[in-house]
Task: inverse folding
């Protein structure tokens, strides 16, 4: 059997999710027995325009990126959105709260005229996506799970339950019981509740579960002292693209 | 063996002696006011005031995740069962959790022996710690008949001051006490003191459920359309915490995990929870319980109707963990009482 040709692509992002892929270390060696990595600028200099599977990191924030991602879609048989920027828009969507001209002025000052920008969006807003690996950054075990599932032709085992499940299985003390706030009850699990485990509230980087109880969660945030605006800003940090759901 | 006394200052030695033969799990304070069962190295102060641990000790018999079998497809298909088990002592298990384990014993041997459970259970010694005072406001043990426990443990200790008044239930319990602990026989005075303390506790544990619990299955059977489920539908986050912390929840999901060589792998199971959205989804995509209210109603029926009817005992053991852990304060006592109030049939 010929090994599928795999390419990694970067759009607007920090490329941290691709870095996570490189941290799988010894498993990476096993993985390259199964796949042929033909483009991966963070790891190698070679490039190829022929690939079967494309991992795409980053969100779409310029018109030129729309053309580029469409071209990738035409070539790849399978596209995987890699990380929060690509899957849900992520922190890049924070800028969507402002006028684009204002955003350019803030970032580029008097050079603003040289740049073009559009409201940030997940890649799914432009092309069809086959698989999603959530998180900021992604979880490396989930990357391996999804890759294996693609190679086996199976549906990957991605949770559609909240972070609370994993948090409670780890026997953490709930942050709400300690007077803190947390996006865990509405956020998709799969991160092994890493932030609450280290005493930091979940910020929702893996996006909302399919059927979150947003009104009850907002009440909970307000009972823990957050104003309406503060509660919304909890949702906006990573979820700016699905703003209509919670406003 | 007759009842004995174990001096509190000898408990540490008892525990460290047990480690010769067993892995010993006991209660540790994780953070102020929050306790967990964990492997204990030194048994310093025999905790007596701890409230129910975040997770019940069932995690040592039915862990969050466990491997059931390993398989290989090359050169020929081959499957080997995996049963991880070792001799262990659960030290300081409260009556509610002992009831919980006894119910799991029934469940995991009901249709067939679940070897991954029963093997662990056979290798487990349970040293109970009786309750003389209600541990916290969420406890409803007395209301569901789980304060008194007369089976399901090897040794039961009761704090009577400088000593633990200790009753031995099984030959295994007797063996380990003889082998690993210092003790003296309990005298008539000690026994009187023990009985007096046991007697004194009766009035302290309030009956919180507003009916005889034997009425609950019928009441719940008629409560499918109770407005309480609509109210809970709006409030419940569907986060699954009530399931995960429950001593009698035993549902699990089974999945296969291939190794990266793509030829071998393992089949695992992981705790599942009936309050989660995907729990009742079938392969066509249909969800038999698509709303949070329906799922919570199902959970309450499991505890107070379906399993209670089948086994003739409450499947809530009264530890109150679900109430304590619910982020939106869904209270098991309030909910059951609301259902009783709205659906009261003639008391028999």
Result:
């Amino acid at each position: 059997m010929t090994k599928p040709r795999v390419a990694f692509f970067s759009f607007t992002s920090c490329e941290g999710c691709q870095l996570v892929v490189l941290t799988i270390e010894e498993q990476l060696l096993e993985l390259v027995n199964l796949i042929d990595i033909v483009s991966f600028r963070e790891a190698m200099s070679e490039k190829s325009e022929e690939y079967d599977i494309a991992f795409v990191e980053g969100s779409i924030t310029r018109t030129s990126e729309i053309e580029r991602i469409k071209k990738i879609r035409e070539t790849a048989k399978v596209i995987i959105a890699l990380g929060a920027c690509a899957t849900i828009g992520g922190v890049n969507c924070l800028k969507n709260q402002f006028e684009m001209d204002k955003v350019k002025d803030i970032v580029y000052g008097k050079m603003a005229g040289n740049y073009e920008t559009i409201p940030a969006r997940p890649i799914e807003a432009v092309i069809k996506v086959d698989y999603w690996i959530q998180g900021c950054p992604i979880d490396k075990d989930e990357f391996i799970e999804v890759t294996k599932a693609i190679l086996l032709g199976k549906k990957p085992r991605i949770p559609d339950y909240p972070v609370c499940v994993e948090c409670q299985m780890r026997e953490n003390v709930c942050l709400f019981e300690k007077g803190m706030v947390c996006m865990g009850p509405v956020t998709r699990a799969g991160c092994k509740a890493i932030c609450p485990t280290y005493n930091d509230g979940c910020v929702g980087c893996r996006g909302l579960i399919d059927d979150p109880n947003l009104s009850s969660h907002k009440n909970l945030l307000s009972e823990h002292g957050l104003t309406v605006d503060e509660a919304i800003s909890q949702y906006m940090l990573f979820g700016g693209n699905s703003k209509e759901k919670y406003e | 063996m007759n009842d004995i006394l174990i001096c509190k200052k000898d408990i540490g030695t008892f525990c460290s002696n047990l480690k010769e033969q067993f892995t010993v799990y006991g209660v540790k304070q994780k953070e102020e006011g929050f306790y967990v069962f964990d492997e204990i190295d030194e048994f310093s102060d025999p905790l007596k005031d701890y409230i129910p641990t975040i997770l019940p000790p069932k995690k040592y018999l039915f862990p969050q995740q466990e491997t059931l079998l390993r398989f290989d497809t090359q050169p020929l298909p081959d499957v080997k069962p995996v049963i991880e088990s070792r001799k262990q002592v659960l030290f300081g298990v409260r009556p509610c959790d002992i009831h919980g384990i006894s119910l799991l014993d029934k469940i995991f041997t009901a249709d067939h022996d679940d070897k991954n459970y029963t093997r662990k259970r056979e290798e487990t010694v349970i040293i109970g710690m009786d309750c003389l005072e209600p541990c916290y406001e969420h406890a409803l043990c007395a209301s569901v008949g789980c304060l008194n426990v007369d089976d399901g443990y090897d040794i039961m200790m009761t704090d009577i001051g400088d000593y633990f008044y200790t009753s031995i239930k099984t030959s295994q319990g007797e063996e380990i006490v003889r082998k690993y602990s210092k003790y003296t026989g309990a005298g008539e005075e000690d026994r009187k003191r023990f009985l007096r303390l046991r007697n004194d506790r009766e009035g302290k544990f309030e009956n919180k459920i507003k009916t005889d619990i034997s009425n609950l299955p019928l009441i719940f059977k008629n409560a499918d359309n109770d407005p309480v489920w609509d109210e809970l539908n709006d409030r419940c986050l569907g986060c699954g915490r009530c399931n995960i912390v429950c001593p009698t929840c035993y549902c699990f999901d089974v999945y296969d995990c291939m190794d990266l060589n793509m030829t071998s792998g393992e089949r695992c199971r992981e705790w599942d929870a009936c309050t989660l959205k995907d729990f009742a989804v079938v392969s066509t995509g249909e969800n038999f319980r698509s709303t949070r209210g329906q799922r919570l109603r199902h959970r309450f029926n499991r505890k107070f109707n379906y399993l209670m009817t089948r086994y003739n005992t409450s499947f809530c053991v009264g530890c109150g963990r679900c109430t304590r852990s619910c982020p939106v304060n869904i209270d098991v006592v309030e909910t059951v009482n609301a259902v009783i109030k709205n659906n009261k049939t003639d008391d028999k």
